[in-house]
């Protein structure tokens, strides 16, 4: 098991390297330099030249890449082209906001989805089941920013219950957290319900019943244990969904997280920041998938032994 | 008093296309310690009969619509759910067809066996564990103690079915229902597993019902055989009598389709032509009539009853106009069925097996329990 | 439940009605009986008609400015919005922040959505099925390369990768072709073809072992024939489902990118662009945002209903 974990951790690096190469290549495929004459922000030509030299933009591409990777190894992600901060500083200051938002949403999603999915499956075709299916369909189908638009319109503009944008107080957090959680909730509810239904009609449940166990014991010991395996594996993709969902929500609600910074940096073509944040996202998702694989090995004896 | 008395059992499934009469008026009885085979093709209702006995029919779409199941003097169909659970695994246990899927993949073997011990016999964990080791040794699992905390996927198919047998025996049930217990196993393993089941059932004085599509298996296993077709019993007899003197053309068909491994047959293995009938709208007369090569007009018009047949032991019954001396019937009574069925070598072998079972049953009549062993304690 | 057990069970219950239908007939029967799916299909058909006949149906030029300097409330009543002041019967759904007719823009937007939904998915289908078949059937280095690409692509979240592509290539000449549409097609196709190829590969790998394929090979059928006659038709079920869900997800990608301002470039009207532009004045006049948002929601739901319907029809057991 330990060697497996170590191997998986080591495998993270080539993946991240490829991500870095591709993002770097794309960033430099864009024509011109970020300091090209801009009608909105006219810079004197000498300044542009100095800036280009300062940031190494005038050097050959491979040198720039070697420089970037060299710095990356020392965890130096470079400086923002637009703000007077390093990328690491920006991430350090703004990532905690995103992490809080994401974790709140993940826990909210789990707290709703697991019971809802289980009850839906156990009480098929009941009101709860229909409600669960409706939520799952809407949540996986309607994009979060569309939900956000209607939620803001209703709760913010018309009812005035919550502030429209911003971050800090619980009142500010309710709507963004709930909307970000919606997609993950829907997704997890769907998976939970489906894998419960799958587990319930397995032969071993009939065997358990033939032993005279109560329905409650059967559900807890025989059905849930099996049904949770696919659910646990889905937490990796769910984390990815929360990360990507988060920048849209942050952008929409003007939350000072790293996601909003990411969108801003894209519109400003602030390449070091784009690359830094992208690598961070890739790392988060790779680690989430790694954790899921390890957890999977722990809860499913069939996997555990074969490793 | 019989251990089990099933009367006019009807189990139906309510589907989009109509009502499926999976079990349609089945009656039989079984004494304590007795062994019974229920034989028929896939879809004849034999598994549903077994599941009905334990009220394990999924509902909906299934429902036991009529009949009574008297077990130990109580009607299983009238019990409340708690009482039925008290019987399941405790007084009636079941062995399922596929040991690959019938064991829970995420629970250890010992957990799955101990569960019933803790529930029904109120054992504590360590006691149940000790007992589990004994049971596993009993069914012939090598180094049982070391394998307690293994998971089902670490066992081979035959070993898993032994685990299933150990599980079924765990609470010393009075009746074991074995539903195609060896169909999913290799032929060589089949014999071993059946032998274990037979030996242990005799040792524990447990009655069992062996459900199978293979008449060849039943011969060496049970004292009596019931042949089912389209949700009904179509022929019932002592095993010896059934092989010596089968009456119904469907039974002949089943006998004809027993394969033999040790000899090149001169005759072809003859399958029964056609498919079992649609149980939503079955044929009006005898259910086997559309596939029967001996059919006459009357078979299409009215369904025969299950009644004793002439030229046979008194408890040999068949549901066939050809065997019944009634106006328009009886044309099969004097037919030389042996020339109809062909290969006699199979029958000779089967008869030998039957004789062995009869002799074993003779030896193991209740009353000569080993000293110090009560019925409930078993070994 | 094992296959044997399942067959035994099906036979035991005798549920299978004996009316003989082919797999696809059976699937169509189940699909047509699915009310949500049929509803979705109707909505999609209507959206398709809007898209095709946009030049005829749209009352105005979607990029022309009419009520210069002033946005206008919809003529239709807006029950929640007390701020409705200017009602002009000429613009049924009002005008947007720079005075363009919202109804015309919505109609033209459906064109972009449909094209963005179908074109990249068609590309994904062609590339994914060919590569997947080759990799699954021949294995070897094609398979190796595919699996390595898969590893990398799976490390990128789709949407983030699309954003990177757009953030960097938008200003490139390629990003300018057809107002960014060409880049949108290419980007969505690049992100999604690998998933399709993997799906097909997996299908082919399992089908390859089936007896009828062995039999075809045994009688010397050429590889192309085995692939086209035996593998493709049998692998098609999950592929059709993937295509059905691929269309709305491509539309959503366009909507999201345009919403954060890096997708299709104005003045081309798309629902995402409309939301992005209208959002600046959302707090004072929400309708230029609410209407495209509603359009996205309805079309996405319609496609999901159809996708669910197709999946349930093809394989009722494939529930997720």
Describe the 3D structure:
The complex is a heterotrimer of chains A (307), B (379) and C (320). Chain A has 12 helices and no strands. With 307 residues, chain A is an all-alpha fold. Chain A starts with a helix and ends with a helix. Chain B is an alpha/beta fold. Chain B is built from 14 helices and 12 strands. Chain B has an 8-stranded mixed beta sheet, with helices on both faces. In chain B, strands 2-1-4-5 form a 4-stranded antiparallel beta sheet. In chain B, α8 links the parallel β7 and β8. The longest helix of chain B is centred in the last third of the chain and has 20 residues, at 344-363. Chain C is mainly α and 320 residues long. Chain C contains 13 helices and no strands. In chain C, α3 (35-52) crosses α5 (102-138) and α11 (223-259) packs antiparallel against α13. Chains in contact: A-B, A-C, B-C. At the A-C interface, α1, α5, α6, α7 and α9 of A face α6, α7, α11 and α13 of C.
Keywords for this entry:
heterotrimer; B: 379 residues; alpha/beta; Rossmann fold; 8-stranded mixed β-sheet; 4-stranded antiparallel β-sheet; 12 strands; 34% helix; C: 320 residues; mainly alpha; MetI-like fold; 0% strand
Indicate the low-confidence ranges of chain A by residue numbers.
none
Mean pLDDT of chain B, as a whole number?
Answer: 81
Q: Which CATH class of the domain at 87-257 in chain A is shown?
A: Mainly Alpha
- Which structural category do the helix and sheet elements of chain B fall into? alpha/beta
Counting DSSP H or I runs of 4 or more residues, the number of helices of chain B is 14
Low-pLDDT segments, ≥5 res of chain B: 366-379
How many distinct helices of chain A?
Answer: 12
Largest sheet of chain A: none
Q: Most extensive interface: pair and counts?
A: A-C, 52 and 45 residues
Widest beta sheet: strand line-up of chain B: 6-7-8-3-9-10-12-11
Shape of chain A: flat
The number of distinct β-strands of chain B equals 12
Instruction: Look at the structure and name the CATH superfamily of the domain at 87-257 in chain A.
Output: MetI-like
Reading the helices and strands of chain A in chain order gives HHHHHHHHHHHH
Distance between the ends of chain A: 7 Å
Oligomeric nature of the chains: heterotrimer
Gyration radius of chain A, to the nearest Å?
A: 24 Å
CATH A-level architecture of the domain at 4-222 in chain B:
3-Layer(aba) Sandwich
Distance between the termini of chain B: 25 Å
């Amino acid at each position: 098991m330990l060697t497996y974990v170590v191997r998986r951790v080591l495998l993270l690096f080539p993946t991240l390297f490829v991500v870095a190469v591709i993002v770097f290549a794309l960033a430099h495929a864009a024509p011109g330099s970020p300091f090209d004459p801009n009608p909105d922000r006219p810079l004197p030509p000498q300044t542009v030249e100095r800036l280009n030299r300062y940031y190494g933009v005038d050097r050959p591409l491979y040198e720039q890449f070697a420089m970037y990777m060299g710095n990356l190894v020392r965890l130096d992600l470079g400086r923002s082209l637009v703000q007077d901060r390093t990328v690491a500083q920006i991430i350090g200051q703004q990532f905690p906001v995103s992490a809080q938002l994401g974790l709140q949403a993940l826990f909210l999603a789990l707290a709703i989805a697991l019971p809802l999915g289980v009850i839906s499956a156990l009480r098929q075709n009941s009101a709860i089941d229909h409600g669960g299916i409706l939520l799952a369909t809407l949540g996986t189908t309607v994009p979060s920013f569309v939900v956000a638009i209607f939620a803001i319109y209703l709760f913010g503009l018309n009812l005035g219950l919550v502030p429209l944008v911003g971050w800090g107080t619980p009142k500010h957090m309710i709507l963004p957290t709930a909307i970000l959680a919606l997609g993950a909730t829907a997704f997890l509810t769907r998976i939970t319900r489906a894998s419960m239904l799958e587990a319930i009609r397995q032969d071993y449940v009939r065997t358990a019943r033939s032993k005279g166990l109560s329905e409650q014991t059967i559900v807890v010991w025989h059905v849930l244990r099996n049904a949770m395996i696919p659910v646990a594996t889905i937490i990796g993709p769910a984390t990815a969904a929360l990360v990507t969902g988060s920048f849209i929500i942050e952008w929409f609600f003007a939350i000072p997280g790293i996601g909003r910074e990411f969108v801003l940096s894209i519109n400003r073509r602030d390449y070091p920041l784009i690359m830094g944040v992208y690598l961070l996202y890739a790392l988060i998702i790779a680690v989430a998938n790694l954790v899921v694989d390890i957890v999977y090995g722990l809860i499913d004896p069939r996997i555990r032994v074969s490793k | 008093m019989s251990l089990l008395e099933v009367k006019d059992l009807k189990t139906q499934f309510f589907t989009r296309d109509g009502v499926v009469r999976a079990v349609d008026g089945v009656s039989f009885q079984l004494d304590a310690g007795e062994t019974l085979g229920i034989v028929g093709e896939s879809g004849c209702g034999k598994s549903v009969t077994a599941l009905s006995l334990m009220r394990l029919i999924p509902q909906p779409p299934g429902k036991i619509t009529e009949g009574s199941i008297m077990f130990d003097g109580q009607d299983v169909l009238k019990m409340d759910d708690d009482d039925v659970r008290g019987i399941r695994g405790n007084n009636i246990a079941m062995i399922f067809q596929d040991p690959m899927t019938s064991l829970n993949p995420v629970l250890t073997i010992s957990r799955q066996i101990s569960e019933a011990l803790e529930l029904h016999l109120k054992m504590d964990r360590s006691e149940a564990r000790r007992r589990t080791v004994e049971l596993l040794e009993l069914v012939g699992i090598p180094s049982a103690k070391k394998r307690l905390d293994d998971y089902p996927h670490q066992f081979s198919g035959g070993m898993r079915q032994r685990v299933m047998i150990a599980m079924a025996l765990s609470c010393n049930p009075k009746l074991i229902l074995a539903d195609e217990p060896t169909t999913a196993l290799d032929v060589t393993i089949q014999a071993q597993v059946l032998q274990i089941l037979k030996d242990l059932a005799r040792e524990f004085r447990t009655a069992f019902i062996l459900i199978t599509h293979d008449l060849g298996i039943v011969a060496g296993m049970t004292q009596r055989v019931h042949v089912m077709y389209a949700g009904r019993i179509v022929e019932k007899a002592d095993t010896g009598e059934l092989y010596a003197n089968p009456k119904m053309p469907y039974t002949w068909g089943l006998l004809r389709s027993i394969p033999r491994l040790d000899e090149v047959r001169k005759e072809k293995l003859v399958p029964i032509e056609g498919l079992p009938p649609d149980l939503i709208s079955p044929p009006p007369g005898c259910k086997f009539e559309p596939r029967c090569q001996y059919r006459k007009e009357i078979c299409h018009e009215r369904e025969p009853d299950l009644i004793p047949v002439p030229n046979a032991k008194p408890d040999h019954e068949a549901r066939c106009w050809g065997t019944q001396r009634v106006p328009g019937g009886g044309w099969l009574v004097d037919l030389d069925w042996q020339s109809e069925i062909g290969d006699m070598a199979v029958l000779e072998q089967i008869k030998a097996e039957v004789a062995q079972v009869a002799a074993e049953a003779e030896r193991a009549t209740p009353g000569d329990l080993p000293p110090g062993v009560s019925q409930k304690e078993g070994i | 439940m094992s296959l044997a057990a399942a067959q035994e069970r099906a036979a035991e219950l005798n549920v299978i009605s004996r009316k003989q239908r082919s797999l696809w007939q059976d699937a169509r029967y189940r699909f047509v009986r699915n009310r949500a799916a049929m509803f979705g299909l109707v909505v999609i058909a209507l959206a398709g008609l809007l898209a095709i006949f946009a030049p005829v149906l749209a009352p105005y030029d979607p990029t022309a400015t009419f009520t210069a300097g002033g946005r206008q409330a919809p003529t239709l009543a807006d029950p929640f919005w007390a701020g409705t002041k200017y009602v002009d019967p000429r613009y049924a759904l009002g005008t947007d922040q720079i005075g363009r007719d919202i109804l015309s823009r919505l109609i033209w937007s459906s064109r972009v959505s449909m094209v963005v939904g179908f074109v990249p998915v068609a590309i994904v289908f062609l590339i994914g099925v060919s590569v997947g078949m080759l990799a699954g059937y021949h294995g070897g280095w094609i398979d190796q390369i595919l699996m390595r690409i898969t590893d990398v692509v799976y490390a990128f979240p789709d949407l983030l990768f699309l954003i990177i592509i757009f953030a960097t290539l938008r200003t490139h000449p390629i990003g300018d072709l057809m107002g960014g549409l060409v880049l949108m097609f290419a980007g969505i196709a690049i992100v999604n073809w690998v998933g399709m190829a993997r799906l097909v590969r997996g299908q082919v790998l399992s089908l390859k072992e089936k007896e009828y394929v062995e039999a075809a090979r045994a009688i010397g059928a050429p590889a192309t024939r085995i692939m086209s006659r035996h593998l493709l038709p049998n692998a098609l079920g999950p592929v059709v489902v993937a295509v059905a869900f691929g269309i709305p997800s491509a539309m959503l990608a366009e909507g999201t990118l345009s919403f954060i301002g890096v997708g299709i470039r104005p003045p081309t009207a798309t629902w995402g662009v409309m939301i992005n532009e209208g959002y600046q004045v959302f707090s004072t006049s929400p309708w230029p945002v609410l209407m495209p948002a509603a359009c996205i929601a309805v079309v996405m739901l319609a496609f999901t209903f159809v996708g669910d319907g197709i999946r349930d029809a093809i394989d009722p057991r494939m529930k997720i």
